[in-house]
Amino acid sequence: MTKKFIIYSTPFFFLFGALSLFEPHIYRTVFASTSVDRLSGKDFTIIAHKGASGLAPENTMAAFKKALELNVDQIEMDARHTADEEIIIFHDQRLDRIARDTLGNRITGDVHNYTLQEIKQFDVGTWFDSQYKDERIPTLKEVLDLIDGQCKVLIEIKHMDHPHYHDFAEKLVEIVLQEKNGEDWIILQSYEPEYLDEVHELDPMIQTKALIVGEDSAPLLAFYIETRIHMGRAKESNRLKAINPHWETLSPRRVFQMHAKGYEVHAYPVNTRDDMIKMLNSGVDGIITDYPDIAIDLKKELMGMEI
Ligand code: G3P
Ligand code: CA
Predict the structure, then answer these.
(1) For ligand 1, what atom is nearest to the CA of residue 49?
(2) What is the mean pLDDT of the chain?
(3) Ligand 1: which residue has its CA nearest to atom 5?
């Protein structure tokens, strides 16, 4: 009897195991509701991803100004460094996707191989729309001076495959501390907990935040394993109060688990009204989006305010 039970139940066991890997996908495509019925009065944090990057070229002063105009709760951006070790705001390791010279030719190569003076020549707006031809890669200091505590700032420390990384962490902390009450409104985040540890050692008052699961193209099994590894590493660090998972890895059960571990959950990148509603119905506390205008309208609707 026991032997038969094992033989017959084994395939179901594997089937259930395989299905659980697809849990977020099944939730999102089959069960997640796009109805706001249960969300009335729901407040949530709106984070402009790379500035208002659906409305202006990402990580530029134009995108940050748009996000400020919209009155978002937080602005997210990506920090890298130049060859002369200045901290700049730029997402990709390579310049190719976004940077052009004055003749419109694509600039190639890694951003950290150019000096700040060279980088300031590149046009990083035309790829998005010709009206932004004068946009340049900003320094972290320029962006922080613009925002000046009007909302919270979430700086993602991008992977620093560079011998001067340590100086980078020191410089970051120095720039944060130069801002008035910087420790209150500037938060550092990274996929690499050791980067956050280094910042924390330099100044324990600076707020840090873990990022988990970044590659939306990764197969589901990789998602699953990565989530577990990152959750485990984040757990060791009791100062991390919030987690930003990729929205395609979430389900109500997973959000519940993260809440049970004491984290706020901010999903990224959620770019349509329906997907925002799906995520809010799954229980997330915040939405990281390229289109903060859509999120602001939704929040006003849920809070019963005039749009
Ligand atoms: O805040 C999360 C998000 O910014 C991480 O992904 O690739 O947009 O920098 P990415
Ligand atoms: Ca980022």
Answers:
(1) 4
(2) 86
(3) 214
